[in-house]
Amino acid sequence: MAPNPCSLARSLAEDIHRLEQALAFIHDEAVPELVLALSCFGEAQALPQDEITQVLEDDTADVLLVAFSWRLLLPAPSPRSSMAWEELAPDMRTSTVWKQPAVIGRLVRAACTTGSWLPRQVLPQCSSILPNEPERIESFLDYARQYAPGCEISANLLRAALREAGIHADLERLIIDFKAAGVLSPKLSSLSDTARHASPLYEINPAVFIHSQSR
User: pTM to 2 decimals?
Assistant: First the structure.
């Protein structure tokens, strides 16, 4: 039997409502449209801008700028790009392809079910070397936030956050996993800061290191 269209519409409306609740940490009037933009992706990791525009119409540019500022969506890097977020710039041409980091896709799908934004439950899905222990992951997120003013953290301080949370994980492997999932990105323009910290510097995804809504 084919799914009932009314049931499907009601289910989609409920998912959108729960996602909007979960994104309450973003204080911007564009949040309802942002929810629609994120909903467009579903299981997809990338979409051309013209498909997003079909849903958002005249609000597309404003919404994508908000999404980019929170690293919820990123313009696909050019072949010559290092893929560091600081080298990406929002391009509002309809041919631009926008990517949803894997960690954000997981957070969005969980939010559509729970109505909460739950990095502590999603991070272990991004790296198999992290323990599936939400309280310990939350502790790591708390320490990392403290060590990352301006959303920048050194590898040494990332190691310290893990240690203080009681997580024993190979830092090099974890950073590889985190970069692949969109949890963090290398900072290339801060050579003086890198020297001062005596370790590589990274930009953390603000939407991942936000305080969880459910403890």
Answer: 0.90
Instruction: List pLDDT tens digits, range 71-90.
Output: 999 998 776 666 789 888 88
Q: For residue range 29-53, list pLDDT tens digits in order.
A: 999 999 999 998 988 889 999 999 9
Token digits of residue 62 = 């404003």
